[in-house]
Each structure stands twice: as structure tokens, then as C-alpha cells.
Design a protein that fits this description.
Elements (H helix, E strand, L loop, with lengths): L4 E5 L6 H14 L4 E4 L3 E2 L8 H9 L3 H4 L5 E2 L5 H7 L7 H7 L7 E5 L7 E3 L2 E2 H7 L4 E7 L4 H11 L5 E6 L6 H13 L3 E3 L2 H21 L7
Parallel strand pairs: 1-5, 1-8, 2-5, 3-4, 8-9, 9-10
Antiparallel strand pairs: 6-7
Helix pairs in contact: 1-2, 1-9
Length: about 220
């Protein structure tokens, strides 16, 4: 697609890195050209692989290609807070955007940090990131159980400039609460909701195909 796809969450710990990695891996296995990027990350150095490590491993890419090495902040705070605590320069959104190289011939998945409104840079969050990249759409990863409807509504409202596709993570079709939340979000709130990585990949491919067909159907621009 011409514009990147931003992956956000309704909160931290909802599984957006897992979703991004699995989605990238599946699309690649289907022959799609995929890139993954995480403009900035903060983490606990004693808590296993970083998000960039996980995302890089999904595509066999260097983690510092996913997230530049100087944007790794080894303290579990929101990135601008982590930068301040570590005595490093303030993080500016413009710099993150300039540093994030999105290959022209690839569909690029860009993962934000924390929830939609979690601080990502000075005065900026993942909503601002999506706007800066003019995201084709946003994948909003949410929990499936109690609280899902409120979390999705609040987060989706924040992304007012880009279409939102909801991914209910860890969905269990034998759980009545999960099923009712899915039905409500889709039928009453009108969201496009996915509950499996394969379903999400199908939506991505369908939108990509539609965008290509619209581009091919557009009349050539007149010159002179």
C-alpha cells in the first residue's frame, strides 16, 4: 500500500507486538513484501527480547533496522520519560518519522508504543504518529474480555483521521463475554473486527488489491 499501516493497542500489554510479528510473517509466507518498523522502544533489559527483537525475528531482519539503535531506551517507562530518566536528549516526533525508512515496494507495518494515547515522543503519541505517516489505516489491538468495548471506543475515537480495524486478541469463541463483545463492536458500533491473524491478513490483502485496482482505473494525468 502507498501509506504505512500503524499498529496500536488499547493499552500496554495487549499483544500488539505479537500481532504485528505474526501478521508480518503470515503475509510474507503468502508472497507479500512486508517491512516492520518500531520508531522507538523502551524496555526492561532483564525482561527478555525487546519488541524490535521479536519483530525482526519474524522477518529475519536486523532489530536495529526495525528500530534504530539510538532509539532503544533501556528502562520500562514511556519513551520520552525513559529518555529523561537516562539523561538523553528529548525525543521529537519529526526526528522519529525522518528516521523511519519505509520501503517503497513494501507494505510497512509500524508499531506504536503502549496505548493509543501513551507518550511516544515529546507532545506526541501513536495517534500523532499515525497522522504524521498519513496511515492507510490503523490496526487497533484490544483485549477480548471485560472492558473491551470501552477500550476500543475510546481508542478508536482518538484515531479520527484513519480507518480503524479492531483485532480482538486472545479471542475464545467458547467464551460468552468474548462473543458478545465481538457482536456488539461489529453490529452496534460498526467496527470491522478480526479475531485471527489469517482473517486480519485477508483484510490487508483485500484492501491492498482494491487500492491497486483504484490506482489502475484512475485516468492518466494530463500534462501541459
Amino acid at each position: 500500500m502507498s501509506n504505512p499501516i500503524v499498529v496500536s493497542g488499547t493499552d500496554t500489554g495487549v499483544g500488539k507486538t505479537w500481532v504485528t510479528a505474526r501478521l508480518a510473517s503470515l503475509l510474507t509466507s503468502r508472497g507479500e513484501t512486508i517491512a516492520v518498523r518500531k520508531p522507538v522502544q523502551s524496555f526492561d533489559p532483564d525482561d527478555g527480547p525487546t519488541d524490535a527483537d521479536v519483530l525482526g525475528a519474524a522477518l529475519g531482519a536486523d532489530p536495529t533496522t526495525v528500530c534504530p539503535a539510538h532509539r532503544w531506551y533501556e528502562i520500562p517507562l514511556a519513551p520520552p520519560m525513559a529518555a529523561a530518566a537516562l539523561g538523553r536528549p528529548a525525543i521529537e516526533l519529526r526526528a522519529l518519522v525522518e528516521e523511519t525508512v519505509t520501503p517503497a515496494r513494501a507494505t510497512t507495518l509500524i508499531e506504536g508504543v503502549g496505548g493509543a494515547r501513551s507518550p511516544l515522543a515529546e507532545g506526541a503519541d501513536t495517534v500523532a504518529l499515525a497522522e504524521a505517516f498519513d496511515a492507510a489505516f490503523v490496526i487497533l489491538v484490544a483485549p477480548s474480555g471485560l472492558g473491551a468495548i470501552n477500550a476500543v471506543r475510546l481508542s478508536a475515537d482518538a484515531f479520527s483521521r484513519a480507518p480503524v480495524i479492531v483485532f480482538l486478541n486472545r479471542f475464545d469463541d467458547s467464551d460468552d463475554t468474548h462473543v458478545r463483545n465481538l457482536d456488539w463492536l461489529h453490529r452496534k458500533d460498526g467496527f470491522h473486527v478480526c479475531t485471527s491473524i489469517s482473517e486480519l491478513a485477508n483484510v490487508l490483502e483485500s484492501r491492498n488489491q482494491n487500492a491497486s485496482q483504484e490506482h489502475e482505473a484512475s485516468p492518466p494525468m494530463e500534462v501541459g
